């Protein structure tokens, strides 16, 4: 049992007297700390020394209050130094007691704690596979911010001001930006296309890039929609890129991803930043393009034998106006772009019919992908 320390009232404020009082107090905190063995006594110890109301460090303030005016600064300095020293000792003790159980209670024959080894998420895996296919064709992966400005997300991609995608019905804008000019308003990017503009601002042609990552739309979650999903977009710029290059590249990529037997088909479509635009279908790799699985109709391709997999097209020359000074002269260069939803491709590859399974964090589901 340690005799409990009491803060003395000071009458002698000479340096020697102060040294003695400081040394006594520090010796006391150390002696009391040595007696603390359990988390209960640890708490009492901590309160006794550090409690704001009536704790020993609070009482020490009295030394400063009662000191003669001319040496107050010196006493103040010593008191502050002392407080730091005491806090250090109390916290150290708290950690020590909190950390280790008494040595005698360790049973080394017990099995250790097993940390479960995770598996790569099916979306990450699918994304990585697609990136690898294009990396072998010379595409490099680029990244950009998820919170974007209207300028990069819409304006520089040739979206007219009244385009429905710019409405809050479709796009998640950050709150309280009504006072800002439209092009400066911040939003969660609705596609990875802004990364293409940002890259072209920095790097001149020729260019072969892949932008991959999270995008957001104002869609309530259901089996085939989610307010957050994943996209991969590609862009190839050079002096003589043709629609034939686009078809050849994507046909090769789809065979690499889904097997050499798949066929591709391009059908006319519309996107604001490409002209002409197309939707690309692959022959259904689940039913082999027959639309049937035995007696049953094939659901993933809705019996058509074809699955829509991505949007693509030749980049509209208007888009290059925004990066013309970086060497993208629409008279001299041409480009194709494509974009695909990673989540949907992952669903097809793994045979899932509910998109939400990916995002619920249910280990029983995720463990299947080990
Ligand atoms: Zn099918």
Topology:
Layout: H1 15-35, H2 39-50, H3 56-66, H4 72-99, H5 122-135, E1 140-142, E2 147-149, H6 150-153, E3 186-188, H7 193-202, E4 207-216, E5 228-238, H8 243-258, E6 264-271, E7 274-283, E8 292-293, E9 296-297, E10 306-315, H9 317-321, E11 334-341, H10 342-350, H11 363-366
Parallel strand pairs: 1-4
Antiparallel strand pairs: 2-3, 4-5, 5-11, 6-7, 7-10, 8-9, 10-11
The structure holds zinc ion.
Zinc ion binds at residues 284, 286-287, 291, 298, 300-301, 305.
Provide a short characterization of the protein structure.
Helices cover 36% and strands 19% of the residues. With 370 residues, it is of the alpha+beta class.
How would you characterize the overall build of this protein?
The protein has 370 residues and is an alpha+beta fold. It has 2 domains: 15-101; 122-369, Bira Bifunctional Protein, Domain 2 (BirA Bifunctional Protein, domain 2), CATH 3.30.930.10. The protein has 11 helices and 11 strands. The chain has helices spanning 15-35, 39-50, 56-66, 72-99, 122-135, 150-153, 193-202, 243-258, 317-321, 342-350, 363-366; strands spanning 140-142, 147-149, 186-188, 207-216, 228-238, 264-271, 274-283, 292-293, 296-297, 306-315, 334-341. The protein has a 7-stranded mixed beta sheet, with helices on both faces. It has a two-stranded antiparallel ribbon with strand order 2-3. Helix 2 (39-50) runs antiparallel to helix 4 (72-99), helix 3 (56-66) packs antiparallel against helix 4 and helix 5 crosses helix 10 (342-350). The longest helix has 28 residues, at 72-99. It is elongated and about 95 Å long. The model has no long low-confidence stretch (mean pLDDT 90). Zinc ion binds next to loops.
